[in-house]
């Protein structure tokens, strides 16, 4: 009976005293004490019930994904993916000047639609590049705040990639290639609101007492992409300052978790209406480029960009605007050590190319992970996230094998690495540098930690000198 009880444990714990009660009382007490999701395995449309759903284990094991921001904003490819809003609503000077100098008077944003051509988009090539990054999942923007859908949505007539522009179902093409050619899991981003949709603006004017827009646009689109493409991540965004009750988010999520074709494997984030971020949903994102650098009690994700200033492609980006591979590895290591996943963004061009600088960063990351991935994938957080003596050293752990990893971002010029956290055990602890065959000598400093001798390396024998990983067996 105890085994049966454990199989239904909610992720926030279980009253262990129940296991000491007479067996005949257990079924009734369990029914009364468990939240509604435990009763028949279904979730109610309440945050209390939905938040109790355990995350599918694959997500915590995956650690690293690729975000793809692609849409009509890739045509002007100036400033950021918020081009339309900054130009028309905020009337920011650089955007207004850009349009005056490059387009005829009276030009509308909708006229960019047919220019989103994707003639060089090759889903198989994208799949190869994305897979080479070492990532375990991808998230594609199916629709951003501009409202243009990358599939032929019935609810976005003449403002989608099948009716105009490419005349192709871009979501379907990429999903098919990802699933046929790679082991990557396929996810979709979807914006709840749209900047200039008249129904949303009318609802907003009513202080969201009306619900025209979610009923005829947002919710039908969400059901459509889930049923049609079966994403394993549904990355919601853009609440337009409207509460989750306006979006009817809990009812949709209850369907997603109970009855959708991906009910067993799908994950969601925390952006389901004003006030839900970092509070409700599946895993937490908390903010764009969120990197707390300390352990969080809830599974989280750091969504960030290779281009420091934009999620969409920018023709006017300078080389210094892109994070280096050292920067990106640092972000990955810090994120994983603190219990998060890294979702690293690229922005393709309007004609469907992954720009060379993004391709290079993806392949560099893949090269580093091919050697050091064991210290990233399927790891757990350790008792310390970073070292107490040497800066730039971050820890991950595999408890099943009792293996500790110390990933260090700067090679010690002294020839020794002093670590304050691992405690070595004489005759038991072994230390090795991943990618280097011989074990490394070390000296115990007792409660103050240990010193590890660094080997002499050459570029030929150790080519990816961006960050290094020490593996400790039987350290404390």
Automatic annotation (TrEMBL):
<feature type="domain" description="Alpha-L-fucosidase C-terminal">
    <location>
        <begin position="385"/>
        <end position="473"/>
    </location>
</feature>
<keyword id="KW-0326">Glycosidase</keyword>
<protein>
    <recommendedName>
        <fullName>Alpha-L-fucosidase</fullName>
        <ecNumber>3.2.1.51</ecNumber>
    </recommendedName>
</protein>
<keyword id="KW-0732">Signal</keyword>
<dbReference type="Pfam" id="PF01120">
    <property type="entry name" value="Alpha_L_fucos"/>
</dbReference>
<dbReference type="Pfam" id="PF16757">
    <property type="entry name" value="Fucosidase_C"/>
</dbReference>
<dbReference type="InterPro" id="IPR018526">
    <property type="entry name" value="Glyco_hydro_29_CS"/>
</dbReference>
<keyword id="KW-0472">Membrane</keyword>
<keyword id="KW-0378">Hydrolase</keyword>
<dbReference type="InterPro" id="IPR057739">
    <property type="entry name" value="Glyco_hydro_29_N"/>
</dbReference>
<dbReference type="GO" id="GO:0005764">
    <property type="term" value="C:lysosome"/>
</dbReference>
<dbReference type="InterPro" id="IPR017853">
    <property type="entry name" value="GH"/>
</dbReference>
<dbReference type="GO" id="GO:0016139">
    <property type="term" value="P:glycoside catabolic process"/>
</dbReference>
<dbReference type="InterPro" id="IPR016286">
    <property type="entry name" value="FUC_metazoa-typ"/>
</dbReference>
<keyword id="KW-1133">Transmembrane helix</keyword>
<dbReference type="GO" id="GO:0006004">
    <property type="term" value="P:fucose metabolic process"/>
</dbReference>
<feature type="site" description="May be important for catalysis">
    <location>
        <position position="303"/>
    </location>
</feature>
<dbReference type="GO" id="GO:0004560">
    <property type="term" value="F:alpha-L-fucosidase activity"/>
</dbReference>
<comment type="function">
    <text>Alpha-L-fucosidase is responsible for hydrolyzing the alpha-1,6-linked fucose joined to the reducing-end N-acetylglucosamine of the carbohydrate moieties of glycoproteins.</text>
</comment>
<dbReference type="InterPro" id="IPR000933">
    <property type="entry name" value="Glyco_hydro_29"/>
</dbReference>
<feature type="domain" description="Glycoside hydrolase family 29 N-terminal">
    <location>
        <begin position="41"/>
        <end position="374"/>
    </location>
</feature>
<comment type="subunit">
    <text>Homotetramer.</text>
</comment>
<feature type="transmembrane region" description="Helical">
    <location>
        <begin position="64"/>
        <end position="87"/>
    </location>
</feature>
<keyword id="KW-0325">Glycoprotein</keyword>
<dbReference type="InterPro" id="IPR031919">
    <property type="entry name" value="Fucosidase_C"/>
</dbReference>
<keyword id="KW-0812">Transmembrane</keyword>
<comment type="similarity">
    <text>Belongs to the glycosyl hydrolase 29 family.</text>
</comment>
């Amino acid at each position: 009976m105890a085994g049966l009880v454990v199989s239904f444990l909610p992720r926030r714990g279980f009253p262990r005293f129940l296991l000491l009660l007479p067996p005949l009382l257990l079924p009734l007490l369990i029914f009364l004490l468990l939240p509604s999701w435990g009763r028949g395995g279904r979730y109610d449309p309440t945050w209390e019930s939905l938040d109790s759903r355990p995350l599918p284990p694959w997500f915590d094991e995956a650690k690293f994904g690729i975000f793809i921001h692609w849409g009509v904003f890739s045509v002007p490819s100036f400033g950021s993916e918020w081009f339309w809003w900054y130009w028309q609503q905020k009337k920011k000077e650089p955007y207004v000047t850009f349009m005056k100098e490059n387009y005829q008077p009276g030009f509308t944003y909708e006229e960019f639609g047919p220019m989103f051509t994707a003639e060089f988009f090759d889903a198989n090539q994208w799949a190869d590049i994305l897979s080479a990054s070492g990532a375990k999942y991808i998230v594609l923007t199916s629709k951003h705040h501009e409202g243009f859908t990358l599939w032929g949505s019935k609810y976005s007539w003449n403002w989608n990639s099948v009716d105009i522009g490419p005349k192709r179902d871009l979501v379907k093409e990429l999903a098919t290639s990802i699933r046929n050619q790679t082991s990557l899991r396929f996810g979709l981003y979807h914006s709840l609101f749209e900047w200039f949709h008249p129904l949303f603006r009318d609802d907003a004017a009513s202080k969201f007492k009306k619900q025209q827009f979610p009923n005829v646009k947002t919710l039908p689109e969400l059901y459509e992409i889930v049923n049609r493409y079966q994403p394993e991540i549904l990355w919601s965004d853009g609440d337009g300052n409207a509460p989750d009750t306006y979006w009817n988010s809990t009812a949709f999520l209850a369907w997603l978790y109970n009855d959708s074709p991906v009910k067993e494997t799908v994950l969601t984030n925390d952006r389901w209406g004003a006030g839900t971020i970092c509070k409700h949903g599946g895993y937490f994102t908390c903010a764009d480029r969120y990197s707390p650098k300390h352990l969080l009690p809830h599974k989280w994700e750091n969504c960030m960009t290779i281009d420091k200033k934009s999620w969409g492609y920018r023709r006017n980006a300078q080389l210094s605007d892109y994070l280096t591979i050292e920067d990106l590895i640092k972000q990955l290591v810090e994120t994983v050590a603190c219990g998060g996943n890294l979702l690293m963004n690229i922005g393709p061009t309007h004609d469907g190319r992954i720009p060379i600088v993004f391709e290079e960063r993806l392949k560099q990351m893949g090269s580093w992970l091919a050697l050091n991935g064991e210290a990233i994938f399927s790891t757990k957080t350790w008792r310390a996230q970073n070292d107490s003596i040497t800066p730039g050293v971050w820890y991950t752990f595999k408890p099943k094998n009792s293996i500790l990893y110390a990933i260090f971002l700067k090679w010690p010029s002294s020839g020794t690495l002093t670590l304050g956290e691992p405690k070595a055990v004489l005759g038991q602890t072994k230390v090795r540098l991943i990618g280097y065959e011989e074990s490394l000598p070390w000296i115990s400093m007792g409660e103050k930690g240990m010193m590890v001798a660094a080997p002499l390396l050459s570029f030929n024998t150790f080519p990816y000198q961006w960050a290094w990983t020490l593996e400790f067996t039987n350290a404390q």
